[in-house]
Design goal:
single chain, alpha/beta, Arc Repressor Mutant, subunit A, 2 domains, 4-stranded antiparallel beta sheet
């Protein structure tokens, strides 16, 4: 999952970003509402973490603006406002969940996974192509019911290919989903991840193939067993 965290406390944002990274989450950080709007204009996020006390806007106004524009990206509020009426106001403004500060990272990760299981966020809890099954919320893959060990970014590549099975996914789209703002991206990074994915799937006996479509990207296709 690629997540936007709108939070003016840089130390907290860095802590959250680093803690979530090994769990399969890519986190972009915006310190202000305007930075958040700019990020949302250029990137399609799977979820938004939102602080309410921002230097240039109240988080509730950000929520209202998103929903007015029919942006349905799941929003999880992270706020020191803990009174019931404040939580109710945030949820009524369009938030999908509300977690009070201070919070524990395992609970935050669990709530993000719960958002990922909602149909509008991930279109189901189980994605299937051939004998390959992928569970987006847990970042796990199975072939004939047996787990396939995939590195974090290879798993992310698989997620986006299987969500678009039969349709090409461009290299820029995959890069956009894999890397946060400011991260160095090698020119052949996607190709490296695709190669690793093909190798792992072949070793597991998956009845799928990843084709390279020149000029359009990569496509995941099922194969018929003989």
């Amino acid at each position: 999952m690629r997540i936007l965290y709108i939070e003016d406390e840089t130390v907290l944002a860095d802590m959250v970003r680093l803690a979530l990274k090994p769990m399969g989450f890519t986190v972009d950080h915006a310190e202000t509402a305007e930075d958040g709007y700019a990020a949302l204009d250029t990137t399609d996020y799977d979820a938004i973490l939102l602080d309410l006390n921002l230097p240039d806007a109240d988080g509730i106004e950000i929520l209202k603006r998103l929903r007015t524009k029919r942006n349905a990206t799941p929003v999880l509020i992270l706020s020191a406002r803990t009174k019931m009426d404040q939580r109710v106001r945030g949820l009524d403004a369009g938030a999908d969940d509300y977690l009070a500060k201070p919070f524990e990272i395992p609970e935050l990760a669990a709530r993000l996974r719960a958002l990922a299981r909602r149909p509008r966020a991930m279109l189901g809890t189980e994605l299937v192509c051939g004998n390959l099954v992928y569970h987006p919320a847990e970042h796990t893959a199975l072939v004939d019911g047996q787990p396939v060990q995939l590195p974090r970014r290879v798993a992310s590549v698989l997620e986006h290919l299987i969500r678009n099975a039969g349709r090409p996914v461009s290299r820029p789209t995959l890069e956009d989903k894999l890397y946060a703002f400011g991260e160095e991206v090698a020119s052949n990074s996607v190709e490296v991840h695709i190669h690793a994915l093909r190798k792992r799937l072949a070793q597991a006996g998956a009845t799928v193939r990843v084709e390279t479509r020149r000029g359009t990207g990569y496509v995941l296709l099922p194969e018929q067993r003989t």
